[in-house]
Specification:
Blueprint (H helix, E strand, L loop, with lengths): L3 E4 L2 E4 L4 E7 L9 E6 L6 E6 L6 E3 L7 E6 L4 E6 L8 E7 L9 E6 L1
Parallel strand pairs: 2-10
Antiparallel strand pairs: 1-3, 3-8, 4-5, 4-9, 5-6, 7-8, 9-10
Length: about 110
């Protein structure tokens, strides 16, 4: 059984930064590509960033490219999302997910004010 705990969200002003963390249980974390997803009020869940198992290959949604950076520390079973130059439209609940699985945490709320 995989358990995921997202943290690091909060309330920031536009232009600010946050660093999200997702800690996964188990010893097989390094076997999975990981993704960060978000769901804004009234919107469907969307992928914002992905990272391969070794951490050397990443991809981003166009809306966050150049502002967000995904990384991972396999020794700590943790994936991160560094978010800079935040915009009000980034407001959402952010989730992490091991690629190809149905495992989700409770998410962490990010709110960006004007």
């Amino acid at each position: 059984q995989v358990q995921l705990v997202e943290s690091g969200g909060g309330l920031v002003q536009a232009g600010g930064s946050l660093r999200l963390s997702c800690v996964a249980s188990g010893r097989t974390f390094s076997s999975y590509a990981m993704g960060w997803y978000r769901q804004a009020p009234g919107k469907e869940r969307e992928v914002v960033a992905r990272i391969r198992t070794g951490g050397g290959s990443t991809s981003y949604a166009d809306s966050v490219k150049g502002r967000f950076t995904i990384s991972r520390d396999n020794a700590k079973n943790t994936v991160y999302l560094q978010m800079n130059s935040l915009k009000p439209e980034d407001t959402a609940i952010y989730y992490c997910n091991p690629f190809g699985t149905a495992y989700w945490g409770r998410g962490t709320q990010v709110t960006v004010s004007s």
